[in-house]
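From the pipeline queue, job 12 of 40. The input is one protein chain; the requested action is below.

Action: predict structure.
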Amino acid sequence: MNNSRRHFIKTSAALAAGTVMAQNLFAENFKTSVPVSGHLWVYASKYPPNWDCTPILEEVFSDFKYAGIQGLEIMEIILRRDDSVQKLADLTGKYGVPVTGTSYGGDMWQHDKHNEILEDLDLITQRLHKAGGITLGISVGDAQRIKTEPELDAQADLLKDVLKLCTKNGIQPNLHNHTYEVINSMHDLKGTLARIPNIALGPDLNWLVRGGVDPVWFIETYGHQMVYMHIRDQKADGKWTEAVGDGVIKDDWKKSREYVKRVFGW
């Protein structure tokens, strides 16, 4: 890995507060061409508390087409709408920007929520598949404290069922971290990996940084099982930048896309 790429990864972590997706990463030290897409959080953040930006999805697809982003990662709330598959298909056809996957979060460490989460994920992954998406970025839930061993057992038990569900519905799952999975010497993430050693990973590089984990070390250690990642930039003072490589939104997406292409060749 050359110095410019190492520096980029150490200081990075989402296109204009969105994200970058890449499959089959780090083969031959970044020489492999990978598809790059963005996450729609920057739009969803305007719709608390459920973050459903369905009303402006056409704006999202239009912005991504302008920027040259190769795909769109959505949030599960969109797929809970009964008309979501048709709407996403129509917008993909109109703008030529495919849905690549969705992020998903749930309190998987709470055993009494397992049936509810599995039922919800069955619906989400079926609709995601129909919409053309293939990746599911899983966040396992923040207990606001260090999880106990029985809670980590419950979390892993549910994840094993989720992996089977994803296989059934044609989806590639991956563990997507926020800070809570990687603080305390990666207690949460290591607890999962101890129970499911080969589970695919989809780290967010900036959350790693903010959780005190060197992303270069993480990639060198776990890169062999990474199928996805999020890139987001931050300034020296820790504040997120508008665009990757720099420090409306429509032009930030375009600038971010061009930066990733220039630095990584993706």
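Job complete. Strands lie at 38-39, 72-75, 99-105, 135-139, 172-175.
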